[in-house]
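The material for today's practical consists of a large collection of protein records. A record pairs a protein's sequence with a compact description of its fold. Instead of coordinates, the fold is spelled out as a row of discrete tokens. We will come back to this pairing of sequence and fold again and again. Here is such a record, shown just as it appears in the course material.
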Amino acid sequence: MEKEAQRHLTILNEISEGNHLTQRAIADKMGIALGLVNLYLKRLIRKGFVKVSNISSNRIKYLITPKGMAEKGRLTYEFMGYSLGLYRETRKNIREGLEALSGKGIHRVAIYGTSEAVELTFLTLREIGVEVSIIISEEGYKSSFLGIPVRGLDEVSPEEFDLIIVASFPLDEFRVQSLEQYGIPNGKVFTLYP
């Protein structure tokens, strides 16, 4: 899905929630420039997806039109297809990378991170019969994640695992460097990206 289509969907979602939003609030929420939000809103208005209503001389309200609701539905469907395809492709890439390690006597695996990449890595490891013993997080102890104990990097030693997988999209160089600083040898570190 193109970035512009994703942004149109985000703006349509924001407007359809019915909250009074300013262009600045939308820009802040999306993490893009105010002028870019203005450009996207003008396009959505020109296409008939959004209508502008004057509240007072210096305030306006954006309303989503029936045509805009249909477009929002179409974009949501497109986004779901894109997301599921990305999910499948990512799991395939993780599986291929990790299967190469399965015959090397790796029994105790730690995963470094607590994001969606960790969930995908965890599920893929389960599929190929590798158990996860520890989840490591920058925030430190958080009880558990997917039923696995979560500890801070300073709370684990290299002897507790055969391999640590840095689970992030894209590769998080900071995490790799922090592993080196804690004395974890490169031979015990696996990243989802080369």
About this structure: The two ends are 25 Å apart (CA to CA). The first strand starts at residue 50 and ends at 56. The helical segments are 3-16, 23-30, 34-46, 66-99, 116-127, 173-181.
